[in-house]
Amino acid sequence: MTDKLTVSVLGTGIMGAAMARNLLRAGHTVRAWNRTRAKAEPLAADGAHVAGSPAEAVMGADVVLTMLYDGPAALEVMREAAPALRSGAAWVQSTTAGIEGIGDLAAFAREHGLVFFDAPVLGTRQPAEDGRLLVLAAGPAEHRAAVSPVFDAVGARTVWTGDDGAAGTATRLKLVANSWVIAATAAVGEVLALAQALGVDPQGFFDAIGGGPLDMGYLHAKSELILGDRLTPPQFAVATAVKDARLIVRAGEEHGVRLDVAAASAERLERAAAQGHADEDMAAAYFASFDADGRPSR
To answer: Is the pTM here over 0.85, yes or no?
Structure first.
């Protein structure tokens, strides 16, 4: 297969649109689709063909890349695309779908003769726009050359976790990684909320831990979004983080592990969403520490 591919990108939100642009920059032909067409239309200026349906988008595609909200959404869209899917095409499934969701998607791939790759990514808006995502991938070694140009275009590195996408090894690693991201984000919000309540200048905290083992770049990155009121556009939205947190909690329950921090983080994110922050960066979980009027809860 030539290194220049026809790639169908189904789902052009924050991540999908950035991935599509990097595929175009790498010289690939991109056929893009989104349920809300307006989110896909800007890609036309970059050279993408904006399709009116999933079936139109996958027509003639060497690789189908899905970056949708969750597993059920990905399965629904692929069912819509089914009449035009080419047997033998590669399906790069990058939606954070959860373990059970991956099983359903892999079954669909088998039914339609698709070569299935479980390939979620680590990274947010900026790494996606820069083509610097970390791709976590599982799929048959004999077909990896067919999708490597796609991974090279959207990511800085690919970590292969296994030869069977249906086993969900890449998705399992993604859930583990996201559990850390969600816990760290919740901790950042609580630290800043407590500092505000106690009259402590956050900079005093940053100075106290600076350069030591408790310091971390992620703390500063998310703190800057909160303190600088730069929660939009989101790097990773609250609403999506809620979904991922619930997938993590469910995975733990199904495997006999109680994840108290993940469960509490999901509740914080849900409260923030209910307060009107669903479309802001996940750092907006900070607001869950306060009443709706921004004052400490009593």
So the answer is: yes
